[in-house]
């Protein structure tokens, strides 16, 4: 894939960052290598010559010192894949509809409750500040646009308050309105996730509030995947009519995502002994994980590009790429990417939201137990059409 003059810098950066480009996973190619990626033609302004990646080997050849990205200076980050800087614990992202301009999103800060509109080339603009309590793992942990966002401009958030966990909705310039309250709150297990299901409803993943037995209790909203309408009621077509419960057995959800064709839906979860990825089956308990991580890297958001599920991690400070087949079964072991071993790293990842089959946004949480650089925390644009092992460095 060649990206030449006339292309937007953010597109150059994203395609170059994950430069294998646009190769698809193929387990038959285990012993083959792709041709070296073509050299990029730099646009005006700071643009690094990105390293090449040797196909399936995962080994990068770093660019020369003369072409490497300079380290951040204050809130200025010279990495053109970074679209927002100097935020705080970006634990929630909602990509805004693509209007042909640079990618933009709403970014939520877990501890402050601030929601900011971010875009490449623009300073973050405050959208709203939600009243949250960030004790334990709670706070602002999920954002999703309304299923009819282009008409109503509504945004939904999963938040922890002084008394409960809840779903609220808001628009710019208006006070938030409670949609679903009374989700149990505990000393731990308060993190939640939210997304649209593609059929006019919202999926809401709730933690078990530190009580694992609540995840199996059909009368509790804790430890569940709920499916609700935009008013907070049980959505039409749920497994049990009149019940919001769509699936059960959740403990500390990191993120929700679905295939772009809607054929499967995933949830990441942090259990007592392992972190897990589950395919959600309506009406069923999360009994058999698709994959587990005994080292507990703290799974957060995820994306499904059709050939792999890409999962962000916080403590692990990497992305996990798990290849899948057309029927959603595992096609190989996960591979750790963007972890700094081959150049590209942004530290701890706290959120991930898919823009389309090719691109996604990730947010960092380095100010929450990591090693922040001067421009942290950040929102970064990545390509999903072969997740990077090479690229520009963190520092």
TrEMBL record:
Highest taxon above the source species: Bacteria
PROSITE patterns: PROKAR_LIPOPROTEIN
All residue ranges annotated as the Glucose/Sorbosone dehydrogenase domain in the record: 93-285
Pfam families: GSDH
Stored InterPro entries: 6-blade_b-propeller_TolB-like, Glc/Sorbosone_DH
SUPFAM superfamilies: Calcium-dependent phosphotriesterase
Region (Disordered): 34-75
Signal peptide: 1-25
Annotated keywords: Signal
Protein name listed in UniProt: Glucose/arabinose dehydrogenase
């Amino acid at each position: 894939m060649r990206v030449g003059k006339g292309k937007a810098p953010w597109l150059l950066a994203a395609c170059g960052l994950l430069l294998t480009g646009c190769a698809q996973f193929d387990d038959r190619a285990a012993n083959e290598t792709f041709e070296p990626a073509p050299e990029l033609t730099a646009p005006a302004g700071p643009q690094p010559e990105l390293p090449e990646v040797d196909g399936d080997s995962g080994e990068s050849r770093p660019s020369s010192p003369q072409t490497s990205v300079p380290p951040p200076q204050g809130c200025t980050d010279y990495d053109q894949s970074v679209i927002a800087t100097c935020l705080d614990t970006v634990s929630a992202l909602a990509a805004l509809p693509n209007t042909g301009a640079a990618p933009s999103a709403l970014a939520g800060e877990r501890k402050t409750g601030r929601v900011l509109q971010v875009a490449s080339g623009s300073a973050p603009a405050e959208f709203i500040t939600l009243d949250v309590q960030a004790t334990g793992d709670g706070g602002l942990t999920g954002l999703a646009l309304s299923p009819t966002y282009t008409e109503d401009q509504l945004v939904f958030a999963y938040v922890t308050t002084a008394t409960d966990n809840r779903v609220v909705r808001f628009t710019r310039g208006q006070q938030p309105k409670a949609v679903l309250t009374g989700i149990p709150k505990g000393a731990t297990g308060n993190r939640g996730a939210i997304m649209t299901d593609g059929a006019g409803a919202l999926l809401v993943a709730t933690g078990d509030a530190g009580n694992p037995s609540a995840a199996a209790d059909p009368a509790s909203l804790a430890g569940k995947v709920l499916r609700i309408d935009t008013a907070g009621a049980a959505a039409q077509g749920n497994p049990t009519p009149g019940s919001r419960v769509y699936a059960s057995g959740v403990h500390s959800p990191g993120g929700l995502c679905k295939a772009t064709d809607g054929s499967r839906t995933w949830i990441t979860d942090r259990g007592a002994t392992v972190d897990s990825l589950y395919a959600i089956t309506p009406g069923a308990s999360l009994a058999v994980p698709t994959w587990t991580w005994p080292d507990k890297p703290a799974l957060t958001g995820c994306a499904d590009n059709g050939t792999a599920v890409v999962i962000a991690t916080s403590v692990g400070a990497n992305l996990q790429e798990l290849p899948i087949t057309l029927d959603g079964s595992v096609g190989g072991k996960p591979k750790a990417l963007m972890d700094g071993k081959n150049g590209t790293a942004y530290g701890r990842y706290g959120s991930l939201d898919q823009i389309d089959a090719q691109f996604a946004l990730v947010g960092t949480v380095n100010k929450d137990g990591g090693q922040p650089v001067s421009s942290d925390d950040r929102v970064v644009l990545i390509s999903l059409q072969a997740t990077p092992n090479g690229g520009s460095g963190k520092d």
